[in-house]
Write a structure and sequence with these properties.
The protein is α/β, with parallel strands linked by helices and 184 residues long. The protein has helices at residues 2-19, 21-24, 50-55, 63-72, 95-105, 115-122, 158-161, 163-173, 176-179; strands at 34-35, 41-45, 80-84, 109-113, 142-145, 148-153. It is 41% helix and 15% strand.
Amino acid sequence: MLVAKAAGDLVATASSIRLCSLCVGSEKRYALGAGYPRAPVMLVGERPTEADLETGTVFTDEADALDKAFAALGMSLSWVYGTTVFRTKDGVACADHLLAEIEAVEPRVLVAFGPRAVDGIRTLDGRCGLRVGDDFPQGTPIAVRPGLVLIATEPLPEGVRQKDAKRRLWRDLRQVPALLGEPS
């Protein structure tokens, strides 16, 4: 029943994004979040890529690399929901829609890809109990409310394409199973 409610909430959020003049802007192309409606892990990127805008969903270019990373961690992609702070390539950050997704999915771990994703999450400060301070070192899990940990990592696509960035991304993602209480 909870999954059905979460799915309904996410459908409502998608409808809200489709009608939002700030999210859609003049280009009328946007990317929506995707994944399991009650995923314990929520990936938050900065903005959609051109491929994301073509498919209408996020992490299109990075899907294979992220799939391999989570498989190596022993985690199914059904444990993951992905979204972005921005819905269009040149749009504005939409804290209301991001907050709606977080509240619907109720993840236990937020993975923020890069400083702009962290900044987008930081705009939620105080809403639904999210508290994100100024000191947010990459790779250090920070409790932002009871039952929810945020970990900042490499921005995408660098995190799946550049050698050193890939190492740092892997180092950070390796913490996720332990943050969920799963063996790694």
